[in-house]
Design goal:
Peroxisomal Thiolase, Chain A, domain 1; two-stranded antiparallel sheet; 13 strands; 33% helix
Amino acid sequence: MSAQAIVLSATGLYTPPHAVSNAELVASYNSYVEKFNRENAAKIAAGQLKALEPSSVEFIEKASGIKSRFLMDKAGVLDINRMHPNLPERPDDQLSLMAEVGVAAAKDALQRAGRDPADVDLVICAASNMQRAYPAMAIEIQAALGCEGAAFDMIVGCASAVYGVVTAANYIRAGQSRSALVVAPEITSGHMNWRSRDSHFIFGDVGAAVLVESSDMAPPGAWAILGAKLKSKYSSNIRNNFGYLNRADPATMNNPDKLFVQEGRKVFKEVVPLVSEMILSHMAELNLAPNLMRRIWMHQANANMNRLIAERVLGREATEDESPTILDTYGNTSSAGAIVCFHKHSADLKTGDRGLLCAFGAGYSAGTLFLAKAA
């Protein structure tokens, strides 16, 4: 079975109920800064502690392009005495929160494709963090949907969803599956350090899903996969050390390294050339010229980074139509970002139009999917 026989039949989206603007986030963070500096005035004066600097809306937008984000819990994040989402654990006999978000996105994708859950024979839960180690989140989502076959989790940072799509395509190509759901429930607010000026604004929560299928069962308007490539290169510049061997205290943040940390300047400097060169190399392998790319759906982490990568790929600055963004309203939703961008900015394309779906993140990990709109 050729690569063109595998398609993206549909995508699905779940948007959390609470939008949080930069102004709201800055007001909360700056109140915390004032409280911290006031309570630690003596140590700061003695040089034992460094005073915290306030944030601003202008700083956030210039650094990232983000203007707002959606959260599962707004009150807990904005409470300066907590600054962490209040997401109580559920009993084992209830659907977990991450599975609930994943199921909602998956149902949306299935409905758009006119597909019954019983037709799906593979479920991959691909996200930057999992709510638990086992049972696999994918198996819980599979059971809640009523799907049969296999299910497993995949964690590759912000590239997880694209890695999941490529893995699903390979399963189908090998004859081990016909219809696969890749689900990316990204509750990133749980691993965010909301007390860090350099990153308190970055992440938002969301749920995304992609239905990957053999072309002989695809609905009208599916997207053929022209080519797919994955790449990884080790780096500690984006890291989260949380795990069952290394517990954090989310209430007091005594262990900030167990939350999201990054060396932002190093990431920018190293990821832009890595991803740009990967895209251009993959395009050359597929004999795809830059002018054939009708649209680029990029990982939604940083507007400046996306602008520069697109410029290197196209040989000129990309228009908003060529390289759309959802970063301004959703924030960085980790591996789901590129899928959400595709979900919201692909319906207007015509049969034969080609595009690139690209994600990259911790690892470093990166994935490229070249697509063509089918009839």
